[in-house]
Write a structure and sequence with these properties.
Blueprint lengths: L1 E7 L2 E7 L3 E8 L8 E10 L22 E10 L2 E12 L3 E10 L3 E12 L2 E12 L2 H7 L10 E10 L7 H4 L1 E13 L17 H5 L12 E13 L2 E10 L3 E10 L4 E10 L4 H10 L1 H14 L8 E9 L3 E6 L1 H15 L4
């Protein structure tokens, strides 16, 4: 790393150049003061904090003692996740810091956010509002270091989150708020169950695999869907939903229940409804459309009977993200689970 430091005007002006950082940093002599700390970086690579570090690093910061910031990074990478370009403007308030606006832009995604980090009488409080749009979900997941569980032509998500803490510590256990997501025209990929840990909210990715229905010999695209949409209520390390729905050419899957984000486990009920023809139609469809045909055969195998003679089936999804347990249940059990999920996670589906 090469560092050139110059005291000029009322600030230090630093030019840095190295594998992890390249750009300009301006640090006002008075911190916090009237002028912001400024980063104008060509690249910035941040890794994980080394184990056995200073215990003082875990002490919470006081947001009222931190400076305003103006941040521009053309290429941002955090723990080997590529976040594209970042622009953020952070101002000071009497209570702490306010994120006036932030924007992330990559090859296939654009995200924006705002928020605050304040010191109140009862302690620290952080809140953020986020919006994400993706034009290629698989590319976005790969860039962010997530397992390739889903593909999608278009993805959209919004989140209103808050927690009683700062930007350090165990956020998962304190996180609360609402998340809404939708994905259009894609496939649920055939992946190992452990890969689903990154998208634990979408246990639909675990459903076909844990039923030992590996259909990669028919198509490498996975189970095709037209839309996925759902709302989640986050609290106490869990995400509750009563309306996660996947609609595809072969079937519709609805999921209600809890995903343990902190515990990394499931407690959900799935309803699978089909309106397509039987196995003969599936075999013919393979020749015309491998993705649709594979889905037809998939659900024929699930139910062990022709799809034309079946309207719906119910499943309980429990256990860890790495080893989910899926079992067939009756409609009465499913109804009880759905009513319980609606009471915990919001309006019924």
């Amino acid at each position: 790393m090469t560092l050139t430091l110059e005291g000029r005007g009322d600030a230090w002006h630093a030019a840095v150049d190295g594998p992890s950082a390249q750009g300009q940093i301006v640090v006002p002599w008075q911190l916090p003061g009237g002028e912001p700390l400024t980063l104008d970086m060509e690249r910035l690579v941040l890794g994980e904090r080394s184990a056995g570090g200073d215990d003082d690093a875990d002490e919470p910061s006081d947001p009222t003692q931190l400076p305003a910031m103006t941040i521009k990074v053309k290429n941002l990478e955090i723990q080997k996740r590529r976040f594209g370009s970042l622009e953020a403007h952070i101002s000071r308030t009497a209570e702490g810091l306010q994120l006036d606006r932030a924007t992330l832009k990559g090859n296939s995604f654009e995200a924006s956010g705002r928020g605050s980090w304040s010191l109140a009488g009862s302690g620290q409080m952080t809140s953020v509002s986020l919006t994400l749009d993706s034009t290629d979900l698989l590319d976005t997941l790969n860039a962010w270091g997530f397992a390739p569980t889903l593909t999608g032509r278009a993805g959209h998500a919004t989140a209103e989150l808050h927690w009683r803490d700062g930007l350090s510590g165990d956020l998962v256990g304190h996180l609360a708020g609402k998340v809404k997501l939708s994905v259009e025209k894609g496939q649920v990929m055939s992946v190992d169950p452990g890969a689903g840990r990154v998208l634990g909210l979408l246990s639909v990715a675990a459903l076909p695999r844990r039923l030992t229905l590996d259909f990669r010999d028919l198509t490498d695209k996975g189970f095709a869907f037209d839309t996925i949409h759902g709302d989640f209520d986050l609290r106490e390390g869990n995400a509750y939903t009563s309306n996660l729905v996947l609609k595809g050419p072969a079937a519709e899957i609805g999921i209600v229940g809890r995903t343990g984000i902190k515990a990394r486990d499931y407690d959900q009920t799935a309803k699978v409804t089909s309106s397509l023809g039987g196995p003969a139609a599936a075999v013919g469809a393979v020749l015309v459309n491998p993705a649709v045909g594979a889905a037809l055969l998939l659900f024929s195998t699930v139910f062990k009977e022709p799809l034309s003679g079946l309207t719906r089936g119910y499943y309980r999804i429990t256990g860890s993200w790495d080893q989910p347990k899926i079992e067939r249940i009756g409609s009465s059990q499913a109804k009880e689970a759905a009513e319980s999920a609606a009471a915990e996670g919001g309006p019924p589906p």
